Amino acid sequence: MDSIIEKIYNGSLQPDAYINPQDPEYRKLTKQTSDLMEECQKRFSENDFRFIEGIIDLYGKTYSMHSTASFVHGFKIGAMMMIEVLDEKG
Question: Which of 7, 51, 55, 89 could cysteine-pair with 13, CB 3.0–4.6 Å?
Answer without folding.
Answer: 7
